[in-house]
Design a protein that fits this description.
This protein is mainly α. The chain has three helices and no strands. α1 packs antiparallel against α2.
């Protein structure tokens, strides 16, 4: 699992704990104070920015594998 996924999972776990549950979700913030909701929005924004910046680095992107010649010929 990468750092981005780990951070999102941690955020959702923290939201759940604040609500008295084992896990939460970014879309259900009932029971959180205004300050907690603002912090969730802040962390979410930072994670989204990090994902966008990561996508700009060619070393962080993957390209689809090319089909092998055998596979191409069998599809004809």
């Amino acid at each position: 699992m990468n750092d981005y996924s780990t951070a999102w999972d941690s955020l959702c776990d923290t939201i759940g704990r604040a609500q008295g549950k084992s896990s939460g979700t970014i879309t259900e913030l009932d029971g959180l104070s205004v300050d907690q909701r603002l912090k969730v929005a802040e962390v979410s924004a930072l994670l989204s920015i990090a994902q966008e910046l990561s996508a700009l680095n060619p070393q962080n992107t993957t390209t689809p594998k090319q089909a092998s010649p055998m596979r191409r010929s069998s599809q004809r």
